[in-house]
Description:
This protein is α+β, with helices and mostly antiparallel strands. The chain has a domain at 15-22 and 60-137: Roll (Thiol Ester Dehydrase, Chain A), CATH 3.10.129.10. The protein is 23% helix and 35% strand. The protein is built from three helices and five strands, in the order βαααββββ. The chain has helices at residues 25-35, 45-50, 60-75, and strands at residues 14-19, 79-88, 99-108, 113-123, 126-137. Strands 1-3-4-5-2 form a five-stranded antiparallel beta sheet, with helices on one face. A hairpin with a 2-residue loop joins strand 4 and strand 5. The longest helix is centred in the middle third of the chain and has 16 residues, at 60-75. It starts with 13 loop residues before the first strand and ends with a strand.
Amino acid sequence: MPSIDWARVEIGQELPPRQHPAITKQQLVMYAGASGDFNLIHTDVETARAAGLTGTIAHGMLSMGFLAQYAGELAGDHGFVQRLKVRFSGMVFPGDVLTCRAQLLARDAHQHTVTVQLWAEREPDHPLTTGEAVVLLREMP
Length: 141
């Protein structure tokens, strides 16, 4: 995935998307172990249904992690993510294929940063997790 090029940054520019493979139950179990979030609505269908859900749901922080990974890829080897904030607006289910997308919102020449709007969606124009990242970009050699 190509990183953001400071010399070619344009406000409003959409960046190349990144698609993640379908979310699996194994991934949710592994994420529960890594995060310490063992709420059974993420791994046990009966518990999820008893809570009023149609089935298990992915951890919200998993989709945030996808956006953080994507922001890091956009920063590339010559930059880093200074700040990331997200909001969860929809549920993610096993089997969902999430696409991370981004659009450049602002450029700060003094700080040498760009602000990027991020979102993860299952379907076009239906974001499930939205956010914003500030990325510091260093000059490329």
